[in-house]
Amino acid sequence: MQPASDLAHTLATSPLEARGVTKVFGGLSAVDGMSISLQRGELLGLIGPNGAGKTTLFNLLAGSLRSNGGTIVVNGTDMTRAGPEARIANGVGRTFQIPRPFAEMTVLENVLTGGQRQSGERAWMNIVRPGRVAAEERAAVEKARALLDFVTLSRLEGEPARVLSGGQRKLLEIARVLMADPDTILLDEPAAGVNPTLLELIIDRVLDLNAQGTSILLIEHNMEMVSRLCSRVVVMAGGRYLTEGTPDDIARNPTVVDAYLGGVA
Ligand SMILES: Nc1ncnc2c1ncn2[C@@H]1O[C@H](COP(=O)(O)OP(=O)(O)O)[C@@H](O)[C@H]1O
Ligand SMILES: [Mg+2]
């Protein structure tokens, strides 16, 4: 158990923060001195017109892109220079705007790819501790099955991932990211292109995860979904922080409306 003072410190620390981060592609700053701080247990919305830099910011937060400036802090630790595996090991998981599952692998195998490094991946462990490797594999399969059940894809576990619809791929992404037990999840447009029935399911599952204590940063264009899920929304435009507020405030804010109409360069 953690001493009470450590626990208080953990609760007070943001699980994930960007401080003045910048990413330049060619001559263009896709993200330009952006700051955002997720509170522990929060379900924070991130919106902005196409090309605002939201996905690039996710790539910086998840460690799949290296920033040209600024700092990324995970649970109080500077992880600006850390790669994606180190961020996953520190509790940060992310889904992709355009899911690209391994098409010929089964749905179950795709979920298993989200797990953290296991002993069996170190060849010598198979020789010196074969029992432990087998037990870990069984536990991983059991967990992957439970997650497929959570996203209602159980009956497709043995099918190749290529048979999944767009909405089912979004659900598979959620199951995959949960394999690593993240305490923070970045969701990049989980509802884009999803039919209304699956949309309700995705909303339910996101709420469940948040209710279980997972901090979530959600990029989403569907404002109805954002309003139902988030009490705070940050708006980005032109790579920068524009404003933030409740979904109602944001919908009525003329600066935000201008940004969507192309009024912010
Ligand atoms: N890998 C890349 N190489 C070059 N330009 C990129 C790359 N990724 C994104 N961009 C550019 O960065 C800007 C922000 O894109 P993105 O982060 O995808 O925005 P959003 O997710 O808000 O729609 C856009 O102008 C986009 O064309
Ligand atoms: Mg995007």
* Largest sheet descriptor: 6 strands, mixed
- Give unreliable regions as ranges: none
Nearest-integer average pLDDT: 91
CATH level 4 superfamily of the largest domain: P-loop containing nucleotide triphosphate hydrolases
How far from one another are the termini? 51 Å
Chemical compounds bound to the protein: adenosine-5'-diphosphate, magnesium ion
Q: So what's the CATH class of the largest domain?
A: Alpha Beta
- Fraction of residues in H or I helices: 40-55%
Number of helices: 11
What is the CATH architecture descriptor of the largest domain? 3-Layer(aba) Sandwich
Shape type: globular
Question: What gyration radius follows from the Cα positions, in whole Å?
Answer: 19 Å
Number of strands: 10
CATH topology of the largest domain: Rossmann fold
Report what the structure shows.
There is one protein chain. The protein is α/β, with parallel strands linked by helices. It folds into two domains: 4-95 and 182-260, Rossmann fold (3-Layer(aba) Sandwich), CATH 3.40.50.300; 102-163, no CATH class. It has helices spanning 4-12, 54-62, 84-89, 107-112, 123-128, 130-150, 166-178, 196-211, 223-229, 247-252, 254-260; strands spanning 16-25, 28-38, 43-47, 69-74, 77-78, 92-94, 184-188, 215-219, 232-237, 240-245. Strand 1 (16-25) and strand 2 (28-38) form a beta hairpin. Helix 6 (130-150) crosses helix 7. The longest helix has 21 residues, at 130-150. The protein is globular, with a radius of gyration of 19 Å. The N and C termini lie far apart (51 Å). Bound molecules: adenosine-5'-diphosphate and magnesium ion. Magnesium ion binds at residues 54-55, 97.
